[in-house]
């Protein structure tokens, strides 16, 4: 059975304090790993898709990387508006996404 | 295009009542998904449509749940005889496959509270 674990569960950062979020997965036949951002009371917002080990993608202060068993989301010099829950979801053969529990990030000014 | 829309955004009901939610996908997307999300957890897959055909259902989808996509456009999710454990956010997503790339875009969700 596909398993996804995100750590830490929660992260409190000072504005400008860079950090990394981890997504460990056990998925047979990975077809892509997706990162989403979710604000309270809203649906997940798509950030990145990574398809192969070694791939990296960047968007503003966020950079996602992928290995064969993990993905990392690096937040560089975060701002308060980066506060959200970050969800990772590997996709195996088939159509559904299997989400981790998310990392709740709070960036304090 | 304004993205995936869901209606209602909030629903409060009493245990035992039936509820129905609607999802309007992005217009050119032929794939539609329903997920359920409880507080502090990631979304869990419920079911998937390609056009009007329901191609996959999770074991989470008990026989009290039914989903339809009658003309391959909007979809409805009905829960019969609601239970307090059904309280959750119900999320709809849509996508289309372009080559090997498929990205699911989510709607704002319908938050259900069963009293």
Structural summary, described in words:
Chain A has 109 residues and is an all-beta fold. Chain A is 0% helix and 55% strand. Chain A has no helices and 10 strands. In chain A, the strands form 2 sheets. In chain A, strands 1-3-8-7-6 form a 5-stranded antiparallel beta sheet, with no helix packed on it. By secondary structure, chain B is mainly β. In chain B, 0% of the residues lie in helices and 52% in strands. Chain B contains no helices and 13 strands. In chain B, the strands form 3 sheets. In chain B, strands 2, 4, 5, 6, 9, 12 and 13 form a 7-stranded mixed beta sheet that branches. Chain B is globular, with a radius of gyration of 14 Å.
Provide the gyration radius of chain A in Å: 13 Å
The structural class of chain A is mainly beta
Task: State the separation between the terminal residues of chain B, measured CA to CA.
Answer: 36 Å
The largest chain-to-chain contact, stated as pair and per-chain residue counts, equals: A-B, 23 and 26 residues
Annotation, overall tally of beta strands of chain B: 13
Strand order of the largest sheet of chain A: 1-3-8-7-6
What is the number of helical segments of chain A per DSSP (H or I, 4+ residues)? 0
**What portion of the residues of chain B fall into strands of 2 or more residues?**
over 45%
Largest sheet of chain B: 7 strands, mixed
Order of helical and strand elements of chain A = EEEEEEEEEE
